[in-house]
Design goal:
Number of strands: 12
Shape: globular
Number of helices: 37
Distance between the termini: 47 Å
Largest sheet: 5 strands, parallel
Helix content: 55-70%
Strand order of the largest sheet: 7-8-9-6-10
Strand content: 5-15%
Length: 797
């Protein structure tokens, strides 16, 4: 369940040309092997066509469906279907259909002869497997507007499956509560709430589980959430049973509802089987590799964060020294510390107070490296927190959203946005419960700032194997080496070379990782020799390090030298991206084939996150990106930037219709996922005055900013664009128009859009002035779009 997916042993099948093909396959797959008459299918999917045309469309769609399936796996159609002149039958036994398996697992439990569900391990396993299959709404985000009967069928199946999923989660939560496994019970209860936030029975179940676990305060907070939700969204108050349960919890009573009274005596009378502090929300990425040699630093930083006067703590150090990884470890440890502090609290309901976690509203990581403008900081924070900043003053909207929060913000890579430190200062002043941990090559220079200098991993005290393994730098190098050469071992024969490498790079993790990437290709001594010959590779700003040793350039140049020409072209080309990129973008912009990208990943020059999207997402470490960009001459850089701008502005323009129709949320999310690249592409087009691309993407970009409520950023983007076009009109060669597009027409359109965004910001006088100018520029047929939109905005102003 969830989105539409078809996979075989060879991988996902993605070649479905139309939504009708997907819908037909899904409908047949869920028919459970029952033959479907062609007339019925034709009327279902093409109701507006006459009988013959509908049947012809069905034949064509079936033909394309067979082609797609058989291209993916020969004879797949024959295995899945029996197709005759009158019927189409899907062989349910020949495929694994998640919906059918989900329903079958639940049905098997319903007919199984057990006394109590919580004592039947077989049925609990079946139900757990069933809810694992429930990945969300059936065919999420899918619909056929021109097939209303199919839409009704889909809606009915969605509601049926949602109810079945809800009941299955409820039974699991109740069963594990009966077992005394309150942690697992709470997990399944909270999943119920995600499906139906208005279900009072689920709210009561969560309240009861929290109270039984010793967290009366959080149980009552759950009651307040329920009461507020019902009052604000439905206009009703909680029912008597919910109110009574809250009163029992306040009084320090057991807080058991009528359901709880039926639990076995030994569960009711015994202490909770497991303690369940509900972790604060967070968006911390999962650890890909173990953290080596930073336990002391993590402990020190945790202690600093617990000091009452420390609101802003900045990890300062050279590029590649491991600031980001250390900050993430501290953030994760803060969550772990919360767990331990809650676990030590008394579980008794009789007078015990619920713990007050320091970060009750969450721990959030905000990546600043992709940003090029200070004004984008607030949007990045809002995105990380899942906030929509609406209103005329986004800064104040962010402050207002944060001012009552208890949370930790991790702002990573601040050094190129130091002018934005004023926003940090205001957050600290206006949101007293927010604590900020930053990483930067340079201090933020705020009075409230506390600094922590991040150094390299420690060096070995000697050159024996035992002595070397005491050093975190050696441990880290060995760990990295084993990722590329699984049988790598530290031995008396190689220990001196490893210790030498670690000392040469002063324990800098990035340099160690890049050096270790070559252990399967070069002898360790050769690696050390190469580094030693280019001693300026360290990217340190330390004054006590010789100037010739303050750059990582030697490691970069050495890695560059070992790349083949295709890898060099790819690495320098993809340096133009910001905030990551897809394989399709790399191929179009940098001509980088998938195999070359994979080689760069293997050589530790490129990162790949397979969990993002359907194909994963690539990203460059900022230091690698800067070095790689320097390898392009001016002409090469201009060509790559042009392709980058063309690719992302075309991506924006292609979503115009979807943003205006039922797929607007998905289309906006797709643009949001590439917003760092889109910003850069747009500004390059403004600087270079690629008028056609600006014109083609302007309307969609306006729709995007309006849809997600980023009016202030959007106004700034279109103001800069309009100013750029206006300057070009004043230039001496403005009359030598290289294209048929009128600069005046584009300026009219851009100014009208800017005016519209100012209306959303309640800046009516400015909007009116711009709208009137847009109308004047667009008159006499120069720009119907600009003139029409200008009149519309003027009317609103």
């Amino acid at each position: 369940m969830g989105t539409f997916e078809v996979t075989t042993a060879a991988g996902a099948i993605t070649g479905f040309r139309t939504d009708k093909m997907r819908a037909l396959l899904a409908y047949l797959a869920l028919s459970e092997g029952r033959p479907q008459r062609r007339e019925r299918l034709a009327a279902l999917f093409w109701p507006e066509n006459d009988h013959q045309n509908a049947l012809a469309n069905l034949r064509l769609t079936l033909h394309r469906l067979r082609q797609t399936l058989d291209n993916a796996s020969p004879d797949l159609t024959a295995a899945l279907f029996t197709i005759t002149h009158s019927t189409v039958t899907f062989h349910a036994a020949a495929a694994q259909v998640d919906v059918l398996r989900f329903q079958r697992l639940v049905a098997e439990c319903e007919v199984h002869s057990h006394v109590d569900l919580h004592r039947c391990h077989a049925c609990l396993s079946r139900l757990a497997a069933a809810v694992d299959l429930y990945g969300g709404e059936l065919l999420a985000g899918f619909g056929l507007e021109d097939a209303p009967e199919f839409e009704e069928w889909l809606l009915l199946h969605r509601e049926t499956l949602n109810h079945l999923g809800l009941m299955t989660l409820h039974h699991l939560a109740a069963a594990y509560e009966a077992q005394g496994d309150l942690k697992l019970a709470l997990h399944y209860a909270q999943r119920q709430l995600a499906l139906d936030p208005y279900r009072e029975e689920t709210h009561r179940q969560i309240m009861r589980l929290l109270a039984r676990s010793g967290y009366a305060g959080r149980a009552l907070a759950q009651y307040e959430t329920c009461r507020r939700l019902l009052r604000d969204e439905v206009g009703v108050e909680p029912d008597a049973e919910t109110i009574a349960l809250a009163a029992q919890i306040r009084a320090g009573e057991t807080g058991k509802s009528t359901q709880a009274s039926a639990l076995p005596d030994q569960v009711q009378g015994a202490p909770p089987h497991s303690q369940i502090p509900v972790r604060p929300l967070h968006n911390l990425p999962a650890d890909v590799t173990p953290l080596v040699g930073r336990a002391h630093e993590v402990a020190e930083l945790l202690a600093r964060l617990q000091e009452p006067g420390v609101r802003l703590l900045t990890l300062v150090g050279a590029g590649g020294i491991g600031k980001t990884r250390l900050a993430l470890a501290v953030a994760q440890a803060s969550l772990d510390l919360f767990d331990k502090s809650n676990a030590s609290a008394s579980p008794s309901l009789h007078g015990a107070q619920s713990p007050n976690p320091k970060y009750a509203d969450g721990v959030f990581f905000v990546a600043l490296a992709p940003l090029t403008e200070v004004t984008a900081i607030r949007a990045s924070i809002a995105t990380a927190l899942g906030l929509e900043l609406r209103g005329s003053d986004p800064d104040q909207a962010l402050i207002q959203a944060l001012h009552t929060k208890q949370m930790l913000l991790v702002l990573d890579n601040f050094e190129h946005l130091l002018e934005g430190a004023s926003l940090v200062a205001e957050i600290l002043q206006r949101a007293p419960g927010v604590q900020i941990l930053t990483t930067s090559r340079e201090r933020l220079a705020l009075r409230s700032e506390h600094l922590y200098q991040v150094q390299g991993l420690d060096a070995a005290p000697g050159e024996t194997v035992a002595e070397a393994l005491q050093a975190s730098s050696v441990q880290f190098f060995v760990q990295c080496a084993r990722r590329v050469y699984a049988s790598f071992q530290l031995s008396p024969a190689n220990v001196a070379d490893v210790v030498r490498i670690c000392r040469l790079v002063h324990g800098a993790p990035l340099a160690l990782e890049m050096a270790a990437a070559w252990v399967d290709a070069l002898p360790l001594r050769a690696i050390a020799d190469e580094i030693e010959q280019r001693a300026d590779f360290l990217a340190f700003d330390w004054r006590d390090v010789p100037e010739r040793q303050r750059s990582l350039r030697a490691v970069f140049e050495w890695s560059w030298k070992l790349l083949n020409p295709d890898e060099r072209r790819a690495l320098s080309g993809i340096a133009v991206f910001r905030g990551g990129f897809t394989v399709a973008a790399a191929q179009s912009v940098a001509g980088a084939a998938w195999a070359v990208l994979t080689n760069l990943v293997h050589k530790s020059l490129l990162n790949w996150d397979e969990s993002v999207g359907d194909e994963g997402r690539y990203d460059l470490h900022e230091l690698v990106r800067q070095f790689a960009a320097q390898q392009l001459d001016a002409a090469e850089l201009a060509a790559v930037e042009a392709r980058h701008s063309h690719f992302y502005l075309a991506l924006v323009a292609a979503r115009e219709q979807r943003l205006a129709r039922h797929a607007s949320k998905q289309a906006a999310a797709e643009i949001q996922g590439e917003i760092d690249n889109v910003r850069q592409a747009w500004m390059w087009a403004v600087r270079q005055q690629t008028l056609h691309e600006l014109d083609a993407s302007a309307f969609t970009l306006w729709q995007f900013y309006s849809f997600i409520g980023l009016w202030s950023e959007g106004a700034g983007v279109f103001q800069l664009a309009a100013e750029g076009v206006r300057r070009s009109m004043r230039s001496p060669d403005a009359g030598a128009e290289p294209t048929s597009l009128s600069r005046q027409a584009l300026l009219s359109k851009l100014m009208a859009i800017h005016a519209s965004l100012l209306i959303s910001l309640s800046k009516h006088e400015q909007a009116l002035a711009l709208a009137l100018e847009a109308i004047a520029l667009g008159e006499d047929g120069v720009s119907a779009e600009g003139e029409t939109l200008g009149h519309l905005v003027a009317g609103q102003a």
